[in-house]
Design brief:
51% helix
Length: 99
């Protein structure tokens, strides 16, 4: 998280104090997925993501492990695959506003 903190601060447009509050709220909802749950889905994830971005294999495997998962990402390339629903920040804001 620290690696991308400056980028997230800039993109979010909020100050560090409020960012840290929001981050703590989000992290309370984060679940660490054990490798033994992801492992059975790695091959399928690889087939889905290999021509897009191999570094996203764990995100795809996690979504496969938990049916009806949605990945929140502003990575436009992830939407090139069609197996996992990907929504970006703008779409989340629209959902929250009820559009």
């Amino acid at each position: 998280m620290e690696l991308h903190k400056d980028e997230l601060l800039k993109k979010s447009g909020i100050d560090k104090e409020n960012f840290n509050i929001v981050l703590q709220l989000i992290l309370k909802k984060v679940m660490i997925v054990p490798n033994d749950i992801l492992l059975p889905f790695k091959e399928d994830a690889l087939n889905i993501i290999k021509n897009i971005d191999i570094n996203d294999i764990n995100f795809i495997a996690c979504a496969l492990a938990y049916p009806d998962s949605i990945i929140w990402s502003d990575d436009k390339k992830l939407k090139e695959q069609t197996k996992i629903k990907i929504i970006n920040t703008k779409e989340i804001i629209e959902l929250l506003r009820g559009y």
